[in-house]
From TrEMBL:
The keyword GTP-binding does not apply. The keyword Transferase applies. This is 23S rRNA (Guanosine(2251)-2'-O)-methyltransferase RlmB. CDD domains: SpoU-like_RlmB (cd18103). It comes from Peptoniphilus equinus. Belongs to the class IV-like SAM-binding methyltransferase superfamily. RNA methyltransferase TrmH family. The gene is rlmB.
């Protein structure tokens, strides 16, 4: 079980039917909280009004906006289910749940319906991810795999092209990103591991002209996913 807090994330998770119990700050029934009460009533979810201090505890001091939902454990997908999708992300040891949540939010916005994460040294779906993604993680399938390199080989067998985001790669604006695409985003500090990079098909970079020559993992992922979406309309799969 985990806690989801904040009005928009709670509204999104209420739509999934996974909320077991809802906690609302005493006396707080204005604005979107009124909508949350209505959704809970329609879903037959127990609502308990509690002091702000209780919500502070549930959210570990984060900004809960007067509402916290207790939700069932996240339902992870299988690798096989992920291979049935068109556009996916592979997160190589993204350890910050805020980054994971931001990436999941962008993934949902740009039509990337699946995310692969490794079993070790990676953030899992938790309340911080829910909050940062504004609930979007519920609309994206996340699968945990033991070995990312082996998973990449499986994706290739299913017709995916694997694109690694790396500063030394080709400018993404010159690369054909059509067809079944898997984007690999590396660790916040170390980037993509050399072993995994060897299994990718193309390395792409984001041209920059400022003094800072790198982007946050979630920002880089958003830029590349936006380009994939732009190219999606005229899909011509490159031949291997």
């Amino acid at each position: 079980m985990s806690y989801v807090y904040g009005r928009n994330p709670v509204i999104e998770v209420l739509k999934t039917g996974k909320v077991d119990k809802l906690y609302v700050q005493k006396g707080n029934r204005e604005g979107s909280v009124k909508k949350i009460f209505g959704m809970a009533r329609e879903g037959g979810i127990l609502v308990t009004e509690v002091p702000k201090k209780k919500l502070d505890d549930y959210s570990e001091g984060n900004n809960h906006q007067g509402v916290v939902a207790l939700v069932s454990d996240y339902n992870y997908a299988t690798l096989e289910e992920i291979t049935e999708l068109e556009h996916i992300l592979i997160l190589d040891k993204i350890e910050d749940p805020h980054n994971f949540g931001a990436i999941a939010r962008s993934a949902e916005a740009f039509g990337f319906k699946g995310i692969l994460i490794p079993k070790h040294n990676a953030a899992y779906v938790n309340d911080v991810v829910y909050k940062t993604s504004a609930g979007a993680v519920e609309n994206v399938r996340v699968a945990i795999v033991t070995n990312l390199s082996q998973a990449v080989d499986t994706l290739k067998d299913k017709g995916f092209w694997i694109y690694a985001a790396d500063m030394e790669g080709e400018a993404y604006t010159t690369v054909n990103l059509k067809g079944k695409v898997a984007l690999v985003i590396g660790n916040e500090g170390k980037g993509i591991s050399p072993a995994l990079k060897k299994h990718t098909d193309v390395t792409v970079s984001i041209p920059m002209v400022g003094r800072i020559n790198s982007l946050n993992a979630s920002c880089a992922a958003s830029v590349l996913m936006a380009e994939v979406l732009r190219q999606y309309a005229t899909a011509e799969v490159p031949s291997k």
